[in-house]
Amino acid sequence: MNLANAWYSSGMTIDACTANPPARALFSPLTIRGTTLPLRAGVSPMCMYAATDGYVSDFHLAHLGRFALGGAGLVIVEATAIEPRGRISHHDLGLWDDSHVEGMMRIAGFLETHGSVPGIQLGHAGRRASVREPWHAGAPLDATDAQAGTPPWQTVGPSALPAGPDWPVPHELSESEIAESIDQWAAAAQRAATAGFRFIELHGAHGYLLHSFLSPISNTRTDSYGGDAQRRMRYPLEVIRAIREAVPENVILSYRVSSVDGVLEGGLGIEDIVEFSRHAAAAGVDVIDTSSGGISTDRSSDTRVRRGFAFHADFAREIKANTDAIVACVGFIVDPEQASRMIEDEEADIVLLGREMLDNPNWVHHARRSLASDEFDHWDQRFGSALGPRLSSLQRLAESGETPLTRFEAYSGA
Ligand SMILES: Cc1cc2nc3c(=O)[nH]c(=O)nc-3n(C[C@H](O)[C@H](O)[C@H](O)COP(=O)(O)O)c2cc1C
């Protein structure tokens, strides 16, 4: 609502309205490694299961492009596999080959041109790979899928331990296979940077490969990649260092953590993740993105974090208070006032929205209208120049008492 409208609808005096409203932290810029996020709200990575052999499709451009046109400060492309075995499903994006770069370039370029910092999440699903899409319950692929042309593949992990009952046993990676995988992470990150992404996030959460090395639930190795916390951190930290060396200095590195494992016994807690975050920051990570859970698919003793509003905010605050990292928070952030308060109260530096953005890709523009007295200034002028006059017309109609249903009332004689 602009100042005139605020005055018009509230009955305030014009003097009270012309005083500048306090600037809200949600709309303050944040510069990291020379790249400026124009505001603190971004789009969380969300797999769309719309790729073939890892290649982007027009769907990805349209889907992600909406968020840039909607004013998001940062748009993070979904988990993108560093090798074919690291895909969650057959239809995940990939960056395991140079030929994937061209399509990604188009996406990064569009996001950048329309005002969002282009981000991408790199991932390896580890022992949770080789599954169906969520609308087919996300179950492991089996012989039925093989008959339908989407066969299961051998998953990999730190140890030969399945993710849950009825899940396949992963192949335990040897030390030489670990070294090969670190090279794959670095090569994928280099391709992401070449494609124009300025923010590269490593998917270190949700039970996927990096997380499975960190957690004692999934890592029971007895070599230098397993055992105590330091050894379990070794693989993720080597991946971070390799990526930091592979990408230009000005690329922002983010790491999504599961702040807690969310299992009944023996899993990682927030204190372990604070400690890991300190090491990750020292190894070259700029941003810690706080999520949770996923290490086990066994729901018989479900201790997942309760899905209340901003359900990771306490974890984000803890990591922010105890590390030097910039902290992003995700999870049921839906309301502009809520989002801005999270920044103002130092719970997080960046808020990421997932499903809310799917529901309303213009969320940031609407947030500006509700918190920053900004009608259409930040919209692409192609939209703003049409929406401004439309709003004036709507206001005129409201003043005259006409509603969209007045016409119907007139013929029914009501
Ligand atoms: C359709 C869908 C796909 C998702 N894919 C990813 C993903 O690729 N990587 C990831 O880290 N999280 C993924 N998530 C989790 C979201 O990024 C986000 O953390 C979660 O939905 C909670 O935030 P929200 O309440 O704002 O949706 C996905 C969530 C949804 C709904």
From TrEMBL:
InterPro entries recorded: Aldolase_TIM, OxRdtase_FMN_N, YqjM-like
Keyword match Flavoprotein: yes
The protein's required cofactors: FMN
Stretches assigned to the NADH:flavin oxidoreductase/NADH oxidase N-terminal domain: 26-372
SUPFAM superfamilies to which the protein is assigned, alphabetical: FMN-linked oxidoreductases
Keyword NADP: yes
A GO MF label: FMN binding
Ranges in coiled-coil conformation: none
Annotated keywords: Flavoprotein, FMN, NADP, Oxidoreductase
Superkingdom assignment: Bacteria
Record's protein name: NADPH dehydrogenase NamA
Organism: Paeniglutamicibacter gangotriensis Lz1y
Lineage, top ranks: Bacteria, Bacillati, Actinomycetota, Actinomycetes, Micrococcales
